[in-house]
Amino acid sequence: MSKPKQQSLFEEEELPENPMPWERESAQDLYLAEIVLNRPVDRVFHYKVPEELRPLLRAGHRVQVPFGRGNQFAPGYCVGVGPGDENLPSVRLKTVEAILDSRPLFNAKMLKLTRWIADRYLCSWGQVLDCVVPAGVKNQAGTRMVTVFEVGTADAADEAQQNDLIEKLPAKQRAVYDALKSAARPLTLEELTQVAGCGSGPVNSLKKKALISSHQKRMQHFENDDDIVHAHIQKQDDLKLNRDQRLALDQILTAIRGQQSETFVLHGVTGSGKTEVYIQAIREVVSYGQQAIVLVPEISLTPQAIQRFRSRFDSVAVLHSHLTDSDRHYHWQNIAAGKVQVIVGARSAVFAPAPHLGLIIIDEEHETSFKQETAPRYHAREVARKRSELERVPLILGSATPTLNSWLRVIEKKDTLISMPRRVNDLPMPGVNIVDVRNDVQIRRNESIGRVLFTGMQHALGAGGQVILFLNLRGYSPALWCKGCGNSVKCPHCEISLTWHRDKNLAVCHSCDFSARPPTNCPGCGAPGLRFVGAGTQRLEEEVKAKFPGYSCQRMDSDTMRGVGSHARVLNAFADGEVDILLGTQMIAKGLDFPNVTLVGVVDADTMLHQPDLFASERTFQLIAQVAGRTGRGMQGGRVFVQSSSPTEPAIVKAAEHDFLGFARLELGHRKEMLAPPFSHYARVILRGPQEEHVEHFARQLAEILSVAANEKQLQVQILGPAPAPIIRLKKYFRYHFQLAAIDVEQILQLWHEVEGKLPREKGIEYIIDVDPVNMR
User: Fold this and answer.
1) Do residues 541 and 641 both lie within one domain?
2) Cα 471 to the center of its chain, rounded Å
3) How many domains does the chain have?
4) Which one of 52, 122, 341, 645 has the minimum C-beta count within 10 Å?
5) pLDDT higher than 70, residue 228
6) pLDDT tier at 591 (50, 70, 90 boundaries)?
7) Residue 31 sits in which domain range?
């Protein structure tokens, strides 16, 4: 594969053809910094480093530089620094203006990792580096400039005079002086007056006498205090492992002790005790003074999961979307200083600046949320694999339903399989009943809970058990349907049906957040009497409360869980038995461990199955298997009812049988016949613009350029499309897409680098490329 453009661009203007001697910079006198910026152009710029910054500037620092002909300042990242060379062109270089951070934000390994991401996901190095650093770190959130005081230094000739002054100090001034002299660090005015028990007057008097001095310093005032958080959590001992857990742990510990970058696919059924294996592997790492990164899906960052780690380790940083910038900055500094033993977080935690990394874990590795949907469009699993290689530490990919990508690597002996086929305490897997609802009277009456599921819920609740109901559609009704023309009411900005939210009486687009009062007449044909079709979680909640009035019910979806701490309140109430029925979307499908749950109902197993998506069967299998795993974790056992209008679909049947191996064998066979992922790689090019015909024409133009280049360079890359995107109109823009397909991803990357600088631009039309996409809408 050819490397992306990294030629030096020397700011600013080129000198005349024959510059005067004093106009040419001498290479011997130059000290240059290689700078990348958060721009969609993958180039390294060179700047002069002024004399005063040379001892301070290092690769990994964030800097401020003039950029463009207007000399506007822009933040950039230093990726290299050193003397100039003799091949320097005749240019007048611009100068680094300032270093923005006291220490480098990236070490050499992280610079290598981010360079690899830029190459692998076809974006600029500067975009990757800017993505890695949280906004709170860039704007130094939680800090401020304050005045601090310390004892002044006197010349030897004045020592006797100063001692005489000190001896004659009034009591309050002497108290201030003694407090500063005994302090381990400079003190702020507030700290000093508090320790000395006085006001600001004695401090000012001492400063006039030159016995103390002051200067400006940046101080930290963070909102988060982990010592307080951990103080309220009771520490717990490690649990005794069963045979499967012990065998799994022994394999991982061998790699940890050998400092090997081996990747383990930990395939353990739901309830097999994977988390305890993670914790005891981390225990080993921490005993060496090292750190561990644990990636989980955002929706799995439940208080229950967080407390499990904090009850075992002294210092745990939890990184999630609800953190303030100040909290993120606080955690970043503690992690970088080596003060944090375990970093638990969602996708971006893979970049945590752990200086003593010993282990990386990705739990629920099959989750699509590990793929970033905006530039840089990286996949955390692949980034973790590369970081594991660079840091020489093991990587664990845990799941009851691994991705077929990971499973194929196991089959090809690229990764090591660890199996945990039994539940802890040999509890049986729950029985799963597929309920054919095509002829169900209650379903025909437009109800969500069929006869079989209703009866099962009655028995479970009557016996004192709890129930979880899963429906992956929020709102009240997912469609407003006109019986006159047979069409649904769509968003005016997107080609998506509006969902009715009854509590607010709004028709809402779940893509662009457009909302309006539901129309009384069809916008298309004008016919009156629109019908609300289908059921979402709001309607399911209403039905449950009507059918089971004597039981407490709570709903968990993105509409109800917006407040800080809302997840914790509902889950704690469920754990304490205050809630009998918990219903919601996929946020309740994983990570929950409640022994009293004796029934799980999948209200509609077909919602994902018939999507125009290559991965629809795989995701349906994963979702049903994960939801089913929420029950049968106690001695009472558990049952699962899966309502479906497609009861013979292999994904549903295999999930009901808890047969991952059978499903993987079947689905991989289909994919191999089609040469579809994971037997090949795709890169999806998506174009959007305000006029459909222009977008279509430009898509065909780009696809043709890439096709011609692939033939000229003899690259085995197939161009599929272009065609309208499954959602052709989104947020007011028309969308077309095409795919680059190849057995070897390097062929796709090489093709894109060959043509990237030659691709035309069309006013008003934007395009992006997504390597190994997981979202095909």
Assistant:
1) yes
2) 24
3) 6
4) 52
5) no
6) low
7) 8-133
Lowest mean pLDDT of 150-154, 716-720, 732-736, 737-741, name the range. Answer: 150-154
Residue 1 forms part of a structural domain: no
Domain boundary among 198, 220, 242: 220
Same domain, yes or no: 122 and 70: yes
Of 503, 534, 504, 527, the C-alpha closest to 516 is 504
Same domain, 239 and 384: yes
Consult the annotation and say whether 525 binds a ligand: yes
The answer to whether residue 91 scores a pLDDT higher than 80 is no
Amino acid, res. 772: D
Least confident of 136-150, 267-281, 343-357, 577-591: 136-150
Domain edge (last residue) among 133, 151, 185: 133
pLDDT digits (tens, 9 = 90+) for 413-438: 999 999 999 998 888 888 899 999 99
198 in a known ligand binding site: no
Backbone dihedral angles phi then psi of residue 244, each to the nearest 5 degrees: -60, -45
Burial group, residue 476, by CB count within 10 angstroms (0-12, 13-18, 19+): buried
Using omega within 30 degrees of 0 as the cis cutoff, is the peptide bond preceding 12 cis? yes
Does 381 lie in the same domain as 240? Answer: yes
Highest-confidence segment of 168-177, 196-205, 532-541, 543-552: 543-552
Q: Is 494 annotated as a binding residue?
A: yes
Ligand-binding site membership of 123 (annotated): no
Residue 754's CATH number: 3.30.70.600
The tokens describing 132, both together, are 């890695």
Buried b (16+ CB within 10 A) or exposed e, 223-245: ebebeeeeeeeeeeeeeebbebb
For CA atoms 113, 114, 119, 122, give the dihedral sign.
positive
Cβ–Cβ < 8 Å for 771, 383: no
In a shared domain, residues 562 and 605: yes
The answer to whether 509 is annotated as binding is yes
Q: 485: annotated binding-site residue? A: yes
Write the Ramachandran bin of 685: left for phi over 0, alpha for psi from -120 to 50, otherwise beta.
Answer: beta
Inside any domain, residue 736? yes
What was the pLDDT predicted at 121?
Answer: 97
Non-local CB neighbours of 593 within 8 Å, separated by 6+ positions? 271, 304, 633
In a domain, 751, yes or no: yes
Indicate if 275 and 380 belong to the same structural domain.
yes
Tokens of 548: 């089971």
Q: Is the pLDDT of residue 3 over 60?
A: no
Orientation angle between helical segments 616-628 and 660-674, nearest 10 degrees:
170
